[in-house]
Amino acid sequence: MLPDAMEALTDGCLPDYPWKQFPFSGCIAMIAALGTLMIDVIGTEYYERKHAKETAAHETASHEWVDVPSLSEAHSDGHIDAEHIHVVGMRAHAVSHTHSHSNGGSCSSIETLHKHGAHTHVHSNPISADTTAHIRHMVVSQVLELGVVTHSIIIGVSLGVSQSPCTIRPLSAALAFHQFFEGFALGGCISQAGFKSFSTVAMTMCFTLTTPLGIGVGTGIASGYNSNSPGALIVEGIFDSISAGILIYMALVDLIAADFLSKRMCCNRVLQVLSYVSLFFGAAAMSALAVWA
């Protein structure tokens, strides 16, 4: 995609200024990669906060209780002993005595107030490694879907506006092969994320329909479409650059690095060797598509 973007944004049909004065394709891809990083971080923080709120609400509902006799006795005596009231988590202490229960682990933690009669303390429950991994899978699958869908629309339109059968046949074969492996990767991420049935179906249908939709749009505008017009070249180059930046970031950071640096991979030499062989074979196969695509 990035070479195609470079070719489109440096085409001779575009004016020299500014398109030939600056490498826009690489710059746009870099901005897209950095934007993907921001979305990645924001999405992860959003799901962690959401999980924290849900867990806190569940813990409060299931563990909070009030010792009525104790409160009644205290009320009948006309006072409540402040030495038995402890508030933890806001650094406000009724007395110098504090109860805190914590479990070591992730830096992300959930603090929940529990009341036992007039005695209140906090349980600090960190987000488990399994929950963190689940959140990462959800974010990765959604961001990857964004990049794949953007790319699928562009290649669908490109195929739809093609007029020559000599171009359509090899291009269709190459794109089918390419889309198959993109779908394979996206499907694996969606499966790991464990979305609800509706979300899974929606994401699957979105990927499935974008390329045919792009082909339909391309076919509809084919009669008045000029692939060498400045507008068409700029739009194609920008979208290809954005898709390239998103997918480069996703491939290197969220997919390849995450898998190869995982504990499971580091502890299994045979799996490491097989994974590296598969990685280089896949890279060679995808590179070979450049002969036809």
What does the model show?
The chain has 293 residues and is mostly helical. The chain has ten helices and three strands. The protein has helices at residues 2-9, 16-19, 24-63, 68-77, 129-160, 165-193, 197-221, 230-260, 263-266, 269-288, and strands spanning 100-102, 109-116, 119-126. A three-stranded mixed β-sheet has the order 1-3-2. Helix 1 (2-9) crosses helix 3, helix 1 packs antiparallel against helix 8 (230-260) and helix 3 runs antiparallel to helix 5. The chain is globular and about 65 Å long.
At a glance:
The chain has helices at 2-9, 16-19, 24-63, 68-77, 129-160, 165-193, 197-221, 230-260, 263-266, 269-288, and strands at 100-102, 109-116, 119-126.
Descriptive terms for the model:
293 residues, mainly alpha, 3-stranded mixed beta sheet, 10 helices, 6% strand, ZIP, ion transport, membrane, zinc ion transmembrane transporter activity, transmembrane
Query: For this entry, what is the oligomeric state of its chains?
Result: single chain
Rg on CA atoms, Å: 28 Å
Shape: globular
Question: What's the N-to-C terminus distance?
Answer: 10 Å
Mean pLDDT: 76
Membrane topology: Multi-pass membrane protein
Transmembrane segments: 22-43, 201-222, 242-261, 273-292
Subcellular location: Membrane
Pfam families: Zip (PF02535)
Give the SSE layout:
Layout: H1 2-9, H2 16-19, H3 24-63, H4 68-77, E1 100-102, E2 109-116, E3 119-126, H5 129-160, H6 165-193, H7 197-221, H8 230-260, H9 263-266, H10 269-288
Parallel strand pairs: 1-3
Antiparallel strand pairs: 2-3
